[in-house]
């Protein structure tokens, strides 16, 4: 059996983040592992703030990052209260950068044993043009990845198989 001590959970604060966290906490509890919740503030958003500032608008990049982090911490606290998992075994990390790159480097640097992440429901055409953070991680991660499916995505995938 694998010795899983540290599980990384990338959170994008989508509609499925609460269910994803609940699922990951159940796994961590069963395995006696720590949960490391990681959120990456996309550098494209920071670059947009910098561009707006360059046009003379009074927007402070540091203030923007602090406000985003404060909002996300508030959301996280609500999600954590809903799960039955010891808070002393949860660590929250915020980073800025390109999400897939930051998450891969973080997983290696922190020596996580497993990544638990979800997929977003996207149309196939949209996915063909944009790709996804999850797909990049699945292809490049040296760490085992557990792919969580919420009820809505699972039902969509089942329908696709039944009709395809």
Give structural notes.
This protein is α/β, with parallel strands linked by helices and 164 residues long. It has a single domain, classed as HUPs (Rossmann fold, 3-Layer(aba) Sandwich). It has helices at residues 17-31, 43-54, 61-81, 99-109, 124-130, 133-140, 151-163; strands spanning 6-10, 34-42, 90-97, 114-118, 144-148. It has a five-stranded parallel sheet with strand order 3-2-1-4-5, sandwiched between helices. Helix 1 (17-31) links the parallel strand 1 and strand 2 (34-42). Helix 4 packs parallel to helix 6.
Termini separation: 36 Å
Return the CATH topology: Rossmann fold
The CATH architecture category equals 3-Layer(aba) Sandwich
Quick one: CATH superfamily? HUPs
What count of structural domains? Answer: 1
Using only C-alpha atoms, the radius of gyration works out to: 17 Å
Unreliable stretches (pLDDT < 50, length at least 5) are 122-130
Categorize the overall geometry. globular
Largest sheet, described in full? 5 strands, parallel
Q: Strands across the major sheet, in which order?
A: 3-2-1-4-5
Topology as H/E string?
A: EHEHHEHEHHEH
């Amino acid at each position: 059996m694998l010795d899983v001590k540290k599980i990384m959970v990338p959170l994008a604060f989508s509609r499925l983040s609460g269910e994803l966290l609940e699922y990951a906490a159940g796994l961590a509890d069963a395995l006696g592992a720590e949960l490391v919740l990681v959120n990456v503030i996309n550098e494209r958003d920071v670059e947009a703030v910098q561009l707006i500032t360059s046009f003379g608008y009074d927007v402070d990049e540091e203030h923007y990052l602090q406000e985003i982090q404060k909002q996300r911490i508030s959301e996280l606290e609500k999600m954590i209260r809903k799960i039955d998992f010891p808070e002393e075994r949860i660590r929250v990390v915020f980073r800025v950068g390109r999400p897939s790159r930051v998450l891969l480097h973080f997983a290696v640097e922190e020596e996580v044993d497993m990544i638990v992440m979800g997929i977003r429901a996207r149309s196939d055409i949209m996915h063909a043009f944009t790709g996804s953070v999850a797909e990049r991680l699945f292809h490049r991660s040296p760490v085992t990845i557990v792919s969580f499916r919420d009820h809505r995505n699972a039902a969509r995938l089942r329908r696709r198989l039944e009709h395809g």
